[in-house]
Amino acid sequence: MQNIDNIYINGEFVTPHGEERFELFNPATEEVIGTVRLADEVDAERAIAAAKAAFTGWSRTTKDERIAVLKRMHKAVAAREDALLEAIVTEYGAPQSRGRWMAQYPADVIAQAIETLEEFEFVEQAGSAQVIMTPVGVAGLITPWNSDAGFICNKLATAMAAGCTAVIKPSEMSAMQTQIVTEALHEANIPAGVFNIITGRGEVVGDVINRHPDIAKISFTGSTAVGKHIVESSAASLKRVTLELGGKSPTVILDDADIEKAVPLALAAGFMNSGQACIAGTRILVPRSRQAEFEQAFAHAVGQVQSGDPRDDKTEIGPMVSRKQWQRVQDYIRLGTEEGAKLLVGGEGRPAGMAQGWGVKPTVFVGHNQMRIAREEIFGPVLVMIPYEDDADALAIANDTNYGLNAMVLGGNTERAVRIAQQIESGRVMVNTLAHEPKAPFGGVKQSGLGREMGKWGMQAYLEAKTVVVG
Ligand code: NAD
């Protein structure tokens, strides 16, 4: 049992004013493995005051001074890769291979922020005016459970690179990972108040951040419903808002695609992070002329995917993060059948050989784009294959969604695939690859979000242009 009894305010680990204890679970066994004492409104006020007090000093630091601090952060976070991996597998249930990537990503993303800062021009000339990119103020950073350390480090490193100070509210469900990151950041000897971490409930601590007049900007990653609430509740103080929300991403397999290459890529996109990924390719569009062939290939390939114990090297899909998430996935699988979708593989219940834990059978339906399983984000390894008539129909289906975060196009002719990709309404489209490009902007259109993270676009989101005209 690990009991986490502190939050981090003004350069110190402190006991929260809040007294609620929240239980932490191992999703593979359903056992309680720890507790976290949650911050409350008083703690949130203190953290915001500390970040406000630190802002003047930090916003006036030079590029070189910020780079030196970010390099210390990078070193301290990189040194905790193994501890993070252990927490990610135990507390989140990620399979080892995915967990290793998730444990390395937090340090990688700090390195990327350093690179962006090194190249960033804070001052530009526009005619007779000097345009100075100025840090926006105290940033409220609100993050989800599905890549805790990665989201904290990305948002914090970018905010600090821009000259902002921060109050971070991570998910209460990933407190062990947060604790490791906090210890690393403390060791990096960052000036007091520049970052503050207050693990607490969204409707308690989160809502103080949403409404507080001393928070100038919110960067949020999480569900579309909470994202809309943040826009509403932050409107009174006209906060700058960056939202990274949900998705229902299409994987468009063109009629000239090589089935041997397309099926593994489509499944890797769909089952990424055990299906608990905002960018998961959960709608697989296949040409009707080749439907039977693809049905057979997907059924066979999914039959080989091992779901269950995250500590087994062969496991590709780990358990869902919580009982609630497991139940939600089960409900959608039942709904798919009730809606008349054809169950190609998978179904309700735990995978064979798994008596306990929140494991799910990797599931693929064949259906159409108006079904709820094709329109709503499930956040589990449940995919729907949708047959289409021709390229125009494929595009119409791909774009007929409230979301627009990610998409993939798979085809034998790259030029043709790129032409299709250009017509998909989405913040990002991958053509014949799943490789992430960290230098490029990341974010969604439509209800998948607002604004962009990563690279210079991510930095600009923490800055405002100040025009100085000298007569
Ligand atoms: P969530 O929206 O329930 O929670 C995200 C964070 O918001 C948590 O820290 C939560 O405590 C907090 N929160 C809840 N209510 C709040 C409120 N009223 N005010 C302020 N904060 C509040 O999402 P989740 O279940 O933790 O994560 C899953 C969701 O995140 C999925 O919808 C997924 O698509 C999305 N997501 C998006 C991206 C992206 O980059 N676009 C990445 C990962 C996850």
From TrEMBL:
Q: GO molecular function terms here? A: aldehyde dehydrogenase (NAD+) activity
Q: Which top-level group of life is the source organism from?
A: Bacteria
What InterPro entries would the database entry show? Ald_DH/histidinol_DH (IPR016161), Ald_DH_C (IPR016163), Ald_DH_CS_CYS (IPR016160), Ald_DH_CS_GLU (IPR029510), Ald_DH_N (IPR016162), Aldehyde_DH_dom (IPR015590)
- Catalysed reaction equations from the record: an aldehyde + NAD(+) + H2O = a carboxylate + NADH + 2 H(+)
Q: Which residues form the Aldehyde dehydrogenase domain?
A: 14-468
Known EC number:
1.2.1.3
- Active-site residues, as the UniProt record annotates them: E244
Which keywords belong to this entry? Oxidoreductase
Q: Which family does it belong to?
A: Belongs to the aldehyde dehydrogenase family.
Q: What is this protein called in UniProt? A: aldehyde dehydrogenase (NAD(+))
Organism source for this protein?
A: Scandinavium goeteborgense
